[in-house]
Amino acid sequence: MISRRACFRNLLQSLRTSYSSSKIGDYHRFASRASSFLQQVFEPSTYSDDENPGVDWDNLGFYMMRTDYMYMTKCTKGECFEQGQLSRYGNIELSPAAGVLNYGQGLFEGTKAYRSEDGRLLLFRPEQNAIRMKMGAERMCMPSPSIDQFVDAVKQTAIANKRWIPPAGKGSLYLRPLLMGSGQILGLGAAPEYIFLIYVSPVGNYFKEGFAPLNLYVEEEFDRASRGGTGGVKSVTNYAPGLKPLTRAKSRGFSDVLYLDSVNKKFIEEVSSCNIFILKGNVIASPAANGTILEGVTRKSIIDIARENGYQVEERVITIDELIDADEVFCTGTAVGVAPVGSVTYKGQRIEFKTGPHTVSQELYTTLEGIKRGLIKDNKGWIVEID
Ligand SMILES: Cc1ncc(COP(=O)(O)O)c(C=O)c1O
Q1: According to the UniProt entry, which residues carry N6-(pyridoxal phosphate)lysine (predicted)?
Q2: Which CATH number applies to 24-204?
Q3: What is the number of the ligand 1 atom nearest to the C-alpha of 294?
Q4: What is the pTM of this model?
C-alpha cells in the first residue's frame, strides 16, 4: 500500500514536472532545473557545458566512460519515489544484504541521447523505457518511478552530462536507468528499500564488427528464458546466465548467440541483447513478444517504419528452418541499432544472408537513424527534444 502522504508528495512533484508532448522540448525549463539541482548539491562546476571532455569521438566503442553526473532517488517499500537529485558520478553504498545483491531484485533500461546536425539534443521514445520498467517492476515486486518521473530523470541526466553527448554522427550518449532493491533482506522477500538511478556513457558501435554484418551462432545447449519466467522484462537476472554461451560463441569467432525456445528448441527467440527479424520477399517477421523475449523499443519502431514503407510485417512463431530460408536477417536494439546478419551457424552448417547497401535492413536502418538524429522529420511523436 502506498501511503496517502507519499502519493500526495508524488502528485505535487509530478504536477511540477509534468509535461505535455507539445512542450516536451522546452529545454530552458529542464536546463534551469538541472542547473539549480547542481547548484544546490555542488560547488559550481569547473568546466562549461560545452567543454570537450577530451574524448576521441572518432573511436567510440561500447565501453563505460566515467562522466560528470548521475541521478538518484530512493523509496521505501509501499511508498512512491522521492524527488531525485543529480550528484557527481561515483560509487554508491549498498548493504551486503541488499535485495539486488542477494536475490537479483533489479531491472535496468537503456536509452540514448543524440546531438543533431543543427545542435539540438534529442531523446528517442524514453516513455517506452519508462513503461517497460513499470511492467518489469510489477513482475519483480518492486515500486517503480512514474512515467513522468522517469522521463524527467532521463532529461535531467542527459542535460547535466551534455558535454558528453558526441558530436552529430559520431555516436550517442547511452543512458542506463537502474532500479534495484537496495534495502537489506535475509530471507527471500521483497527488499524494504529501493534505489532508482541513471548513469551515462558516450558510446559508438555496440559490436566490434562496427557496421559489418554479424555472424550468429544458434545456441542449442543453453536457454535464455522459459515460459512464465522473466524473459519478457529487463531483469538483471536474465543477463549473467547468457555470459557462458556468449563467451563460448565469441571464442569461436561468432559475434553473438541466437537463442531458441526452451521447450521445442525449434523456434527462434532473440539474440543476447537484441531482437531478431527475418525477411522473405516482401514479408518481414519477428518472433512474437509472448513473455520469453524482450519487446524492444527498436523492434516496435522498426515494425511501424516497415509497415509505413509498404512491407507486410508479422509477429509470430518463426521456426529455425524459416530463418535458414530467409533472404535477409537483422537484429534490432537501442545499443546495436539495426544490425545486418551475414551468417547464422546451426548444427555445424553456416547459412549466409544478403547484406549491403541495397538491403531492406539498410533501408530501415537509414530511416530509423534519420529520425533519431533529427535528419528525417518525426511525424510520430517519437522524438523528445531537450535542447
Ligand atoms: C534481451 C534483449 N532483447 C532485446 C533488446 C532490444 O530492446 P530495445 O530495442 O528496447 O533496446 C535488448 C536491449 O535492451 C535486450 O537486452
Answers
A1: 234
A2: 3.30.470.10
A3: 3
A4: 0.89
Band of residue 48 on the pLDDT scale cut at 50, 70, 90: low
User: Where are the chain's structural domains?
Assistant: 24-204, 214-372
214-372 CATH choice from 2.40.160.60, 2.40.50.140, 3.20.10.10, 3.20.20.140:
3.20.10.10
The catalytic site residues sit at: 234
Q: Are 294 and 128 in contact (CB under 8 A)?
A: no
Q: How far apart are CA 345 and CA 131, in angstroms?
A: 35
Convert the pLDDT of each residue in 291-347 to its tens digit: 999 999 999 999 999 999 999 999 999 999 999 999 999 999 999 999 999 999 999
Distance between CA atoms of residues 40 and 36, nearest Å:
6
| Ligand 1 atom closest to Cα of residue 301 | 9
Does residue 296 have its Cβ closer than 6 Å to ligand 1?
A: yes
Tally Cβ neighbours within 10 Å of residue 62.
Answer: 15
What nine digits make up the cell of 165?
Answer: 553527448
